[in-house]
Amino acid sequence: MCRHLVYLGPPRPLAALVLEPEYGLLRQSYAPRDMRGGGTVNADGFGVGWYPRPGETARYRGDRPLWADQSFAEVAAVTESGALLAAVRSATVGMPVVYSASAPFSDGHWLFSHNGVVTGWPGSVAGLAAELPVTDLLTLDAPTDSALLWALVRHRLRAGEPPGEVLAGVVASVAAAAPGSKLNLLLTDGAQVYATAWRHSLVVRTEPRAVTVGSEPHDGEPGWTPVPEGHLLVGRPGHVDTAPITAPAAPGEPHEQPSRGSTEPAVPAESAPAAATT
Ligand code: GLN
Fold first, then answer.
1. Any idea which residues carry the catalytic annotation?
2. Of 89 and 276, which is predicted with more confidence?
3. Which CATH number among 3.40.50.150, 3.60.20.10, 3.50.50.60, 2.170.130.30 corresponds to the domain 3-244?
4. Atom of ligand 1 nearest to the CA of 101
5. From CA 60, how far away is CA 58, in angstroms rounded?
6. CA pseudo-torsion sign 236, 208, 35, 62
7. Nearest to 237 by CA among 31, 4, 12, 3
8. pTM of the predicted protein model
């Protein structure tokens, strides 16, 4: 199960956000604390996306473990940004280990990451994929569930849908097509952060001038708050909102919606992911 992170706040060196925190992504790449049974290490690549200028993204991605890339450490020590999305990857069984499968995926000012797995891949979501333009499918970043999720999100963003609705809508439709999927999505435009907690861990820390959203707390400082299961988070420095994601009803079944603040999964937990690692 990958681990991911968004930081929005005063400019800081990438190293201070990714490499130096006691339990940060570097540590999470070899000793994560909350994998919930989804693999043991996150060593199948990593990626960091940041904003060298407002509205402009840069990425550094690799197919090696984060700890093995000294070049990144050198760049990260001298590069600052006030907005960052970073991820370390644990490839789901059967999915290729290539740098282009490492988050963040990007389009214009958007950076995106997925922590989880789509059950029944690829057949379960073939119908959703068929709704995308053929060129989007031909140019998927990689033949992985995460890359398809990004294509679904990107398609709706390009159509002008509000980003929070896009994430909640994609989670709801994929969860309906592939029950039991783990769908922690993370999206930023450098000013706001949007995230879903869907069958995996997600925490947030809000400070007066910053907000940090991640799979795990990356230090022992106070202020980390779990995002309730089945919820969408929308945040900016100093402020976050969470709201339940409405699960679409199966034909003939009543509508299911987790209550605000619920810690229960919004979908039944009986259908565990098929793959050993996610
Ligand atoms: N299933 C995705 C992949 O293999 C996401 C990885 C993860 O969360 N472990 O790329």
1. 2
2. 89
3. 3.60.20.10
4. 10
5. 7
6. positive
7. 12
8. 0.88
